Amino acid sequence: MFAAPAGVSLIVGRPTIRGPSPPCFSEVFCTAFDLAARLYLEWPHSLRREPRNPTAPYMIVSIANQKGGVGKTTTAVNLAAALAMRGRKTLLIDLDPQANSTISFLEHGAVGRSTYEAIADATCSLADIILPATTPNLFIAPARIGLAKLEARLVGELDAHFKLKDKITQLGSEYAHIVIDCPPALGLLTVNALVASTHLLIPIQSSYFALEGTDDLLETIEKVRQRPNPALRILGVVITMHDKRTALARDIREQIQKVFGGKVFRTVIAKSVRLEESPAYKESIFTFAPGSSGATDYYSLCEEVIERVEARTA
Ligand code: ATP
Ligand code: MG
What we know:
7 strands; binds adenosine-5'-triphosphate; Rossmann fold; alpha/beta; binds magnesium ion
């Protein structure tokens, strides 16, 4: 656990739904003060400008939220594609045994060795497994279902949390941007991603249970920042699958904004059938449906991401 800053008392707890219907948002968002207090800890960091290391990637961003189906993979795939379209080499690392990022660009048969071997096997590097995607400048470190065995394989290894960081360090500055798609869990894979990253982007689905579990995620981030990676920054929270026509979605957006304040990206990712369809065609939204709202939203998110990273980097 971490210490509360002066003047801020922490009420640690999980949002719970109790009481009779109709549902009461103040109960769902009962940890608002707790979360705000945790984010308060971010501000001194955010005011400091970090020197750029010319021998490392410009940005290594984990897309993480232990809740399933909130838009992590859709965000990782399309943010990576948008970054690649800006003309700099971008690597998408698939750290989810479901391999959804991988199959968004590659056929199953195209994948040989995967992130499992690159992390677990000392003789296999990331460079050995990386494949080009259909988008220029975009490369993929693919996953396979076998990645689920990683935790058991690394039990007892003292540097288990640093495996991915070490392999990324070997790549030097070959890739300007690295995007890591995390699994829906806070286990060893996600911790490896957080230890290796300069930034974290949290997708939150515009749904009634939007903030449930967020306190566990923030606690994990705090633990990572206390020891293995004090430089990790929360880049922001992006609201996904938003349907602005419904009053519920508008209320949820307001509540997320109350809790996370300036951390919420101005860009909101709207619900879009085209975003659901594009993986089946092995394309990002930018080539599959360039005129769609999904393409506009993810392009705009990418611009904001670059803006935020540049604001903090000398
Ligand atoms: P998991 O936790 O299982 O890895 P995830 O957080 O990576 O899931 P996604 O796979 O990106 O979530 O999205 C879950 C589902 O929602 C997918 O079917 C995806 O196509 C769909 N989806 C994601 N974003 C949108 C959107 N903006 N509009 C419509 N559908 C979306
Ligand atoms: Mg996913």
